[in-house]
Design goal:
CATH architecture of the largest domain: 2-Layer Sandwich
Structural class: alpha+beta
CATH class of the largest domain: Alpha Beta
Strand content: 15-25%
CATH superfamily of the largest domain: GAF domain
Number of domains: 2
Radius of gyration: 22 Å
CATH topology of the largest domain: Beta-Lactamase
Shape: elongated
Number of helices: 8
Helix content: 40-55%
Length: 252
């Protein structure tokens, strides 16, 4: 184990103390962890700066609010995945195409579930993989339904890099596709993240009416034309609405 790994392990040893202890003094952390005083001091200072630990007026340390944020994100993702999975399974059995579920992570989207057992050709998508919010129907289904101010700030600051031959790299065109998505309730992409693949996606909303996820039907581009697109868009919109309803969303 190299020095860097030792530091990480020791840091986790300190944080793990707070699983069983609500608050601890500096000396108690030293006693319980068995880590030298100077090392404990250095790591605690770093934890404070990053928001992992907070020091109260009584000189005792407690877990910081950053853990609340992480806990909320994990809880939200697990809840959405658990609720969405049976709907995704039914949709996959129906259309025989890959079904993807994503959530937002900063200026990116992360795939948290995928079902593609009945699809003969595997796509690039995978659980844990990330993509920018502007590229691909599933990611853009989140971007398109964010508040106007967030969309404006995102487009003004984000560099639109090409990933495949159909990636949208023009900001005016991106605005147009967002407005179209808002009117029609779904997004579509062709060769944006990988050549010769397409997707049709719809947004998922929570009880506050906030977009929290996106769900897509994805596959080989040749299958996403004419009547197939009309069929896929209606089915993915219906499933997105069903999942949103399970999350407490009431459509106005």
């Amino acid at each position: 184990m190299n020095n860097k790994n030792k530091t990480v392990v020791r840091s986790m040893d300190i944080l793990n103390l707070f699983i069983e202890h609500t608050e601890l003094s500096f000396q108690e952390i030293i006693n319980l962890s068995g880590i030298p005083k100077t090392s404990v001091y250095r790591m605690i200072r770093s934890f404070e700066e990053m928001g992992f630990l907070e020091k109260g007026s009584d000189a005792k340390y407690r877990l910081g609010l950053l853990f609340l944020k992480f806990g909320h994100l994990v809880s939200m993702r697990l809840d959405i995945r658990k609720i969405a999975y049976p709907f995704m399974q039914d949709l996959h059995n129906d259309v025989k195409e890959a079904i993807n579920l994503i959530v937002r992570e900063g200026n990116e989207a992360i795939y948290i579930e995928k079902i593609d057992t009945k699809q003969k050709v595997r796509l690039y998508t995978a659980i844990g993989r990330k993509s920018p919010l502007y590229a691909g129907a599933c990611s853009r289904s989140i971007l398109s339904f964010l508040p106007d101010a967030e969309i404006k700030a995102y487009i003004e600051t984000e560099e639109l890099k090409p990933f495949a031959q159909g990636t949208i790299t023009d900001k005016d065109k991106l605005y147009e596709t967002i407005q179209q998505a808002r009117m029609e309730g779904y997004t579509i992409s062709h060769s944006e993240l990988e050549n010769h693949t397409s997707a049709v996606a719809a947004p998922i909303f929570n009880h506050l009416g906030e977009v929290v996820a996106g769900i897509s039907i994805a596959g080989i581009e040749a299958n996403y034309k004419g009547e197939n697109v009309e069929n896929f868009k209606e089915k993915v919109k219906k499933v997105a609405e069903d999942i949103s309803r399970q999350l407490g969303y009431i459509k106005e």
